Amino acid sequence: MQYVFLSHDVDWRIQGPPTEHILQRKDRFDLKIFEKTKPEELYRNIPEYMEIEEKYDIRSTFFFRTIYENGNVIDYEDDIKQLQKSNWEIGLHTDRQSINSIEMIKQEKEKLESITKDKINGNRVHFLNYNSELPDKLERLGFLYDSSIRHSKDRIDEKEIGYSKINHLIEFPITIMDAYLFTYMKIKEEGIIPEFKKTLELSRTISENNVITILWHDNVLKMKGGRMYNKILEFLTSQNDVKIMCGRDLVKILKN
Ligand SMILES: [Zn+2]
Question: Is the whole-model pTM more than 0.90?
């Protein structure tokens, strides 16, 4: 079986970036969508993601920050509750300044848990800040898995596929990320599905039981490229040997 760990990072405060930031990136959007959508809603897509994934009966992981520029994670409380109610997973999107201090990671975890009222099992560091001491800190804080590693920016090879165990913590390298596809790899919209096909083929060649980790940021769903998300799920769910799930459910399978 080819397992897909499907995830979204919620990088921006609920109000989105400052309007100026969005205006500078106007050409990332289809003009019609840009004109009919309120600026703060261009970057905010949690309900839309839920609707798309529900259609395919898929549950993914949403990683939330607890430190937002000029914003607060508590503003996401309603979204978080909705996600939890329907069995999506909430993970911690740790601040890159926190990773050298177990105390700071603990504070972030507890802040998020004060909203979820439930244990947080998964971690991903913002900007994929990672060092070799991080897994031990995460394990000591009770995390079951991390997904903060990417070895390269411009290619998808065997190092970015699968998972590893570091003591009891499971580490999922990010196989496919929206931002790297469009920038470093220069993939055009029509090249996205072929890239997924190629990656899946590579994963199958390596092992008939394997893991592919996908990161599709919350803010890209209405953007060119990012809007291919529905088609990506349509392709993946059409494959008989592919199972798509959140990190929590995948960890359960891998531990058995
Ligand atoms: Zn991030």
Answer: yes
